[in-house]
Design brief:
Length: 110
């Protein structure tokens, strides 16, 4: 499963999530740290990534353009990197369902 961590999520999670989400990457590590949301969206679409983010921008984009890119929207507010790691691990099955179900476009996690 290919997760693309947005700029607002620590790139330290890439290593920590490799066992459960082996193709996880981060916009910074891909040279997309100053890319626009549109550029990140297009990269995710062209490379079959699910975007993991803490802001609404990508969700709002999916409302306009459809589910070309799947989104995991972490609506947890400011929280630690460790907490985000635990949340993603806890919701592993939900994330698998998001990946496989063509009718789903966004998984919101509170």
């Amino acid at each position: 499963m290919k997760l693309l961590l947005d700029q607002n999520i620590s790139r330290k999670l890439v290593k920590k999530l490799q066992n459960l989400f082996p193709e996880t990457n981060h916009v910074y590590l891909l040279g997309l740290q100053i890319a626009s949301d549109e550029e990140v969206w297009n990269y995710a679409r062209n490379n079959n990534f699910i975007i993991v983010t803490q802001d609404s921008d990508f969700y709002e984009r999916s409302l306009v353009y459809g589910y070309q890119v799947k989104i995991i929207w972490l609506r947890t507010g400011n929280t630690t990197t460790q907490n985000i790691e635990q949340i993603l691990i806890k919701h592993h099955k939900d994330i698998l369902m998001l990946e496989k179900d063509e009718t789903l476009g966004c998984l919101q996690i509170y």
